[in-house]
Amino acid sequence: MKTFELVAPCHFGLEAVLKREIYDLGYEITLVEDGRVTFEGDAEAICRSNIFLRTAERVLLLVGRFKATTFDELFEGIKALPWESYIPVDGKFWVKKASSIKSKLFSSSDIQSIVKKAIVERLKTKYHVEWFEENGASYPIRVFLLKDEVMVTLDTSGESLHKRGYRTMTSKAPLTETLAAALIMLTPWRKDRIFVDPFCGSGTFPIEAALMAANIAPGMNRNFTAENWTNLIDKKLWYETVEEANDQITTDITVDIQGYDIDGDVVKAARENAKRAGVEHMIHFQQRPVCELHHPKKYGFIITNPPYGERLEDKAALPELYSQIGEAYRGLDAWSMYLITSYDAAEQYIGRKADKNRKIYNGMLKTYFYQFMGPKPPKRKNKCDIRENM
Q1: What is the pLDDT averaged over residues 134-157?
Q2: Is 180 a residue whose pLDDT tops 80?
Q3: How confident is the model at residue 109 (pLDDT cuts 50, 70, 90)?
Q4: Long-range contacts of 353-360 (CB under 8 A, 24+ apart)
Q5: Separation CA 86–CA 97 (nearest Å)
Q6: Could you tell me which residue, 361 or 95, shows the higher pLDDT?
Q7: Separation of first and last alpha carbons in the chain
Q8: CA–CA distance, 40 with 6 (Å, rounded to integer)
């Protein structure tokens, strides 16, 4: 089976999490750059990476890389790529996005226009036609220029992979599903440990945690552009991958996952989102302020996205809010707390310096993932150990 180079973009600062996911799927990584990971895989890998990866923004098929400092070089470089190996004669193709960083060519609209023209010229000579109907499957193209190196890709995903299909209702400042999943994966939380999000909003953190606990693949309930690429991917591979994902689901498990928010309407929306994700029975949602956060058990986890105060009128409330977070955390025996925020005085008002602090870009916003680590629970003695001590 033909092997492709696949590129998976992700949030800046979370490449290591995505890298681990790709390795776990069984694929060979060839390059790790800021905000993306490149790996090798066949047609089945396109299906599996789209359906199983929790932290990738999309899966791109790499058509080629080359250097270009002039529009003539860009045109010739695009024209030299084997487009007929990817786009059939009736394929609908357009440049969905062109981005340029630190490159001599920087006009996105000009780059898009020239790339389209170059592909048309290539396919004219290969298919011996002068006009393309473009009434078949869609083949969106994404072009990236970085320091004059051009990377040309086909988008296999379509809509970003953070759109799992369950979140139709969102709060004011929602965290994307892919970022939430990556942040959870940065913590030592496992499904046998307590999970609480006291600022749950639309429920993204608790829902992503429940999906992980139940082994529900994030792409189970959505479509992908490459499903219609029958010239490259046999339809049965998609069905087989969904079947593989179904076989791994274990929803009959006992977990303690909780989501709280001070806004009752938001909590109601979170419940609806969890229902669409198929995990409503695994999460306890409740209207409750952070000052009422408490739990009788030890060794739990707070993983949350508290308000940042991006609007000036909200900033005044942040010292008191983060003081309440700190007070609630101090009342939880042997718990760990992980929170993402752009509020630079978070540690001051929480009343404790974080054990670790990781810089992460949430879109264009620079945020910090503060990690307050509690002690590990004692190892449980197994039956053999008990018998030996009798």
Answers
A1: 98
A2: yes
A3: very high
A4: 358/13, 358/186, 359/13, 360/11, 360/12, 360/13, 360/14, 360/179, 360/183
A5: 18
A6: 95
A7: 58
A8: 6
CA distance 258 to 285: 6
Q: Please give the Cα distance from 271 to 259 (Å, whole number).
A: 10
pTM metric for this prediction: 0.93
Confidence of residue 314 (pLDDT cuts 50, 70, 90): confident
Q: Would you state the pLDDT for residue 169?
A: 63
Q: If 0-12 CB within 10 Å is exposed, 13-18 middle and 19+ buried, where does residue 178 land? A: buried
Nearest to 302 by CA among 203, 189, 171: 189
The lowest-confidence range among 5-19, 87-101, 281-295, 358-372 is 358-372
Widest Cα–Cα separation across the chain? 86
- The domain limits of the chain are 4-155, 177-216+230-372
Q: Which fold has domain 4-155?
A: VC0802-like (3.30.2130)
Q: Looking at residues 43-56, what average pLDDT do you find?
A: 98
pLDDT at 313 over 80: no
Taking CB atoms within 8 Å and a gap of at least 24, the contacts of 359-367 are 359/13, 360/11, 360/12, 360/13, 360/14, 360/179, 360/183, 361/11, 361/12, 361/13, 362/11, 362/175, 362/176, 362/179, 365/308, 365/310, 366/342, 367/308, 367/340, 367/341, 367/342
The C-alpha atoms of residue 65 and residue 286 are separated, in whole angstroms, by: 51
Alpha carbon distance 344, 239 (integer Å):
47
Average of pLDDT values for 20-37? 97
CATH of domain 177-216+230-372: 3.40.50.150
> Does residue 93 carry a pLDDT above 50?
yes
CA 276 – CA 163 distance, rounded (Å): 13
CA–CA separation, 156 vs 86, rounded Å? 11
